[in-house]
Amino acid sequence: MSALLRFSGLWVILACGVSLRAQQVPLSLTAAVEEALKKYPAVRVSLEQVAAAAAGINLARTAYLPRADFLAQINRATRNNVFGLMLPQPVISSISGPVLGTNNLTNVWGSAVGVLVSWEPFDFGLRQANVEAAESARKRAEAAVGVTRLQVATAAADAFLTILAAGQIVHAADAGVERARVFHQAVDALVKAELRPGAEAARARAEVALAETQRIQAEQALAVARASLAQLVGAAPATIQVEPGRLLESQPDAPLESARLAEHPSAREQSLAIDEVKAREHALNRSYFPRFNLQAT
């Protein structure tokens, strides 16, 4: 039993160690962008908006189907009826039957069951216009997904590059601190040998303090950049490690291909938003036509 417990505890420790090592795998630029696109909530929100827009198309198509209303009631009321015209209103319930000449407070049971089937045979294109408006909304939602993915990918790439830049600044700050300390030691030795005035030693100490301050600021910027990338990829900032690859190497200048403006996700989304407004305007124009219904009860 004791050996089994020790083995179980060793297995838990080994499993935790493997898990921690798995979380600390350095991220490349491509992996960071892919993780952000996979885990950042804004992308999932955009995809759910596409699903909602697709459901709106199915809802608009239900207007082609006939409508059936069912009613069943049972009541006990007096024989009295209202004489004269009763205008439409939500207070007094509608009453059927002939009007009595005198008030009669006797009451009886009554019941009613009914069904009404309605169908619109033609609508001058109104239902089709509503379906097209719903389809336009779905296309715009799909384009919005592309915009969101572009924004998340850009933010992840920017955070990744910021980490690399901040790391290089930290290295430079460390070198600056080491240089300032060596210079201070040299000046301090000359001052103690009375070959330099004491003011130079004070100035050297000030340069060391300035270099250490710059290093602290560089480390702070690196921590902020790691926190930004961790928020995008859904990980703890302490586990974020990046693999620069060839990004820190000098690259030859290559001509950039100019992309057309219409192919940009934001431009495409705005273009589809205009199409959606036009489709809704087309549906509103069809709403002026009369409505015809076939009814059976």
Explained architecture:
This protein has 297 residues and is mainly α. The chain is built from 6 helices and 3 strands. It has helices spanning 2-23, 29-39, 41-61, 126-192, 198-233, 265-286; strands at residues 67-78, 107-119, 294-296. Strands 1-2-3 form a 3-stranded antiparallel sheet, with no helix packed on it. The protein is elongated and about 130 Å long. It starts with a helix and ends with a strand.
SSE blueprint and pairings:
Elements: H1 2-23, H2 29-39, H3 41-61, E1 67-78, E2 107-119, H4 126-192, H5 198-233, H6 265-286, E3 294-296
Antiparallel strand pairs: 1-2, 2-3
Number of strands: 3
- Which value, in Å, is the CA radius of gyration? 38 Å
Mean pLDDT: 80
Q: Percent of residues in helical segments?
A: 55-70%
Task: Give the number of helices.
Answer: 6
First-to-last CA distance: 80 Å
Class based on secondary structure composition and strand pairing: mainly alpha
**Poorly predicted residue ranges:** 1-23
Strand content: 5-15%
Strands in their spatial order, largest beta sheet: 1-2-3
Say what oligomer this is.
single chain
Main sheet attributes: strand count, strand direction, barrel closure: 3 strands, antiparallel
Envelope shape: elongated
Q: What is the string of helix and strand elements?
A: HHHEEHHHE
